[in-house]
């Protein structure tokens, strides 16, 4: 099933009424699985070289409403160019048409998400920006030294990369449904904001510049400090293999990942099992309603509150056509 997240005010009012009715009946809105696709199983991506990257990266400055945050990301046109080159090379080598990265690019042109195939990682979502801006207001009050952070459904990974940019000793792991997104977007963005970070703002023209992928050893050392997970959340715990509480995460971040009512329980199951007790904290940034796909803040809150494991509170609200919020989860036994 494919869909976009943009919709009219009339559609929004209908969806709100539907959610309220469902809330009263203690039921969840669901969507059918895409029968043409299979869920991608969870796995770990190991980085041993930089062959996944071109010699140069086109980089753009990310615009925030606050002035104290400076982050960069790989330009989408650069991603498209690499996909076209890699696709052409693969076809010449195998004499078979490639359908991995190129197929994702084709799908992304028409849909925000294609369930079970592409989960929106090429786009930098509004709630990801919200989460960065919120974190920038509290980062001075958080002791990040030698702490562990996980970003679920990371895509461009701006929230976790922002924290990494403020504390070098931080250990950050990344998870995205699509392996191609980790290679084409997440990993370049990590390097762009660490080892390859622009030192001279004058090199930007219309907020865009080009960076050489230099010093491969330093880049690899940076990437080897992180674990990269791919695939569905359903079997992610089996891949992570965290049994000791001290191995788990002090902070979990996630943006725009609770849009689908079917996948919310799987996401929540990961959060509650890999967040360190008793003082771990999770921040979930999302829109109140995702029209047509049953997810949003309300269904997620129902699952969390029913489990009676976390205190859940709203720490950030953005008033827009569709309201956006950041939810903070803390263990009840830490209070």
From TrEMBL:
It comes from Acaulospora morrowiae. It is found in: Cytoplasm; Nucleus. It is an enzyme of class 2 (transferase). Keywords: Cytoplasm, Methyltransferase, Nucleus, S-adenosyl-L-methionine, Transferase. The lineage of its organism: Eukaryota, Fungi, Fungi incertae sedis, Mucoromycota, Glomeromycotina. Belongs to the methyltransferase superfamily. METTL18 family. This is protein-histidine N-methyltransferase. Its EC number is 2.1.1.85. SUPFAM superfamilies: S-adenosyl-L-methionine-dependent methyltransferases. One of its GO terms (molecular function) is protein-L-histidine N-tele-methyltransferase activity. One of its GO terms (biological process) is methylation. GO terms for cellular component: cytoplasm; nucleus. The keyword Zinc does not apply.
